[in-house]
Amino acid sequence: MKGSDVTVSNVSKSFGGFTALKDVSLEIKKGEFYSLLGPSGCGKTTLLRAIAGFEDPDSGTILIDGSDVSGLSPDKRHCNTVFQSYALFPHLTVFENVAFPLRIKKTPTRLIKELVMKHLSLVQLEGHAEKKPSQLSGGQKQRVAIARALINEPSVLLLDEPLSALDAKLRQHMLMELDSIHDKVGITFIYVTHDQQEALSVSDRIAVMNAGLVLQVGSPQQIYENPATEFVARFIGETNIFRGKVLSRKGTLNVIEVESFGQLLVDDETPVEVGDTIVVTIRPEKIRISNDEPSGDELNAVRGVVEEPVYSGFQTKYIVRVEGGGRLTTFRQHANWSEGIPDIEWKDEVFLSFSARDLVIVEKSPG
Amino acid sequence: MKRNLGPAYVAPQALWLTIFFAAPLLIIVAYSFLRKGLYGGVETSFSIQAWADIANPTLLKVTLKTLWVSLAATIIIILLALPCGYSIARSKNQALRLFLVIVPFWTNFLVRIYAWISILGNEGFVNQALRFLGLKAEGFQFLYNQGAVVFVLVYMYLPYAILPLFSTIDKFDFTLLEAARDLGSTRMQSYTKVMLPNIKGGVITAVLFTFIPIFGAYAVPLLIGGKDSYMLGNVIADQLTKTRNWPLASAISMSMTLLTAIAVFLFAFKKPKEQQAVKDIDPLSLPNGKTIGFFHRGPGQGKKKPSGKGVA
Asked: From the list A54, A88, A104, which residue is nearest B185 (CB)?
């Protein structure tokens, strides 16, 4: 497989009094599509810039393909960056923008033409070679930036929120295109984003960051289904959070007491002690909503009133106030004609039921 | 229907230019074609004697020297002003630094020249200090030579270059420098291959703002220079006040104006080759190389922030 592995060990960086990275360690495999995900100011861009060579870490080392790159300037590193603002050279044509790295290297003119046209066709811009960047649309500029970053055949491509300047529709499209470019060139992609949807849909693995720390590294499924902390659970997708005290534990099955919900059954392997305070989470789509009292083997069931139905075509989101006073969010898919009509309406009395196995313990503190 | 009052709005400006620019210029042109008066002034009879007198070797020598001094001073100024403008543009307290650049303008031009005389003169501050320290009793002769003229000219006109360069560099997107570095260029290459072409407009403005006034310099060579530092401005003044040959003074002035105008035209309005090429290939391409000074906005210099975090 092409590409390089990137190893980040104990990297810290602060700007004045602000700590951007706190002892961050990551291992990125060859050819991986690896996302750094987190809210703005979480340190993800600083980490990317440290890998690219634009920031010097205060401590720690970065290895690209096994060799330490500390102190190497960006032009000496075998990685290239796609900038958030594209950073195309306005005085050069599309062709010359893409050819820039080759001209610096004094590549023979004939080879330049061949390589540039090959990369322009990779991003489907063959017909725009002689245009200036100012004549291109946002999506086209983005493609030029990608072609330009790939022409040096780097072993790692760094992408700094490359889609954030595009509108929502185009962003989806470009994301799929990025994915297919990744498949074609096969090199390591490190992708910085604050958008959890983007990260979930294309990444092989995701590192969720907040306040300079890496909170969890895992595949999109692991991150979504088994968030490691309350922050990760809240940041990725929508979720319901309960904070409660463990009353009893038998095997992996816990009974917890949650204020304004009552008692809940939680089936989770995380070892907890009776008396611990734990935080558990459940995704809204795992809560069933119905007009009739649920029957069957659902282990948790609560009664409530629909406070806010939010219809969005393929699904309806219900915010339900339960008897104890707490609020739960649930999704209901409209999969076929019989489920297409939101027959549950505002102020309806409903039943919510969910399995003990779908509740995940994300935090625990003794006592 | 509304009447188009366009021409009326221009009238004050036109009147101003006619009285204070066009008319004096025409008077000078007219004087250059009249016969020289005995004690200065002119006689009202046509003559091309003044234009014939221009072609003399002494004047040619002074012209060449003036060109040389102006070019040297302009090049030094641009080389100094580029890093200055860059550092001001990238600094956090731009206002303070710009203020410091502008402060000297609060002092009269002549007073600033005399200030240099009192610093570098034979009995000036530097020589007195050297004498006091017992280093060089007889002192240095800093002034009254070509080098001193260039030095003071550079000092005088440096702000005129810093300001336009600052304003163009301030609009420059510094991410482009990072992109250049990322794509394999050295620090120097990132400045010469990416920044310089994008701030070309500012450089042209800075050159015009400094070269033109220096080409017509009069006070600096007079006060700072020696016998061999005469520039065209001094020759004109001498013709006017000492030799009292007004037609010749007018003819020299007009030639200078013409020379400058031609130079500016060639320098500032020349279309860069590669832009022409793009235009030939793509009829949609706009000629965005309006390169003349003050209003220049090179391609992409209107900084556009990536907008819209949008929904996923």
From this structure: A104
Chain A closest-CA separation from residue B206 CA (Å): 20
pLDDT grade for A297, boundaries at 50, 70 and 90: low
> Which three-class secondary structure state does DSSP give residue B47?
coil
Q: Could you tell me which chain A residue has the CA closest to the CA of B189?
A: A104
Distance CA A195, CA A198 (A): 6
How far is it, in rounded angstroms, from Cα A90 to Cα A87? 9
Contacts of A88 in chain B (CB under 8 A): 179, 300
pTM across the whole model: 0.81
Which residues sit opposite A305 in a β-bridge? A321, A349
Interface of A with B in 18-47 (CB under 8 A): none
Q: How many CB atoms lie within 10 A of CB A151?
A: 24
Smallest CA–CA distance from B303 into chain A, residue: A85
Residue A152 zone, left/alpha/beta (φ > 0; ψ -120 to 50; rest): alpha
| ipTM score | 0.84
Q: Are A120 and B216 spatial neighbours (Cβ–Cβ below 8 Å)?
A: no
User: Helix (H, G, I), strand (E, B), or coil: what is residue A57?
Assistant: coil
Interface residue B280 vs chain A (CB under 8 A): no
Q: Which CATH number fits domain B57-244: 1.10.3720.10, 2.40.128.130, 3.30.160.250, 3.40.50.300?
A: 1.10.3720.10
Which of B183, B191, B307 has the highest number of chain A CBs within 10 A, making it the mutation to test binding with A?
B183
Whether A83 has its CB under 8 Å from any CB of chain B: the answer is yes
3-class DSSP assignment, residue A67: strand
Q: Is B200 helix (H, G, I), strand (E, B) or coil?
A: helix
A105/A150 same-domain check: yes
Per-residue pLDDT at B1: 57
Q: Does B291 touch chain A (CB under 8 A)?
A: no
Residue A70 DSSP code:
T
Q: Do B181 and A81 touch (CB under 8 A)?
A: no
CB contact under 8 A, A74 and B281: no
Tell whether B188 is within 8 A of chain A (Cβ): no
CATH number for the domain including A214? 3.40.50.300
In terms of Cα–Cα distance, which of B285, B239, B238, B222 is closest to B37? Answer: B239
pLDDT in tens, A39-72: 998 999 999 999 999 999 999 999 998 889 988 9
What are the backbone dihedrals phi and psi of residue B308, each rounded to the nearest 5 degrees, phi first? 70, 100
- B217-274 pLDDT, tens digit per residue, is 999 999 999 888 889 999 999 999 998 899 999 999 999 999 888 988 888 777 554 4
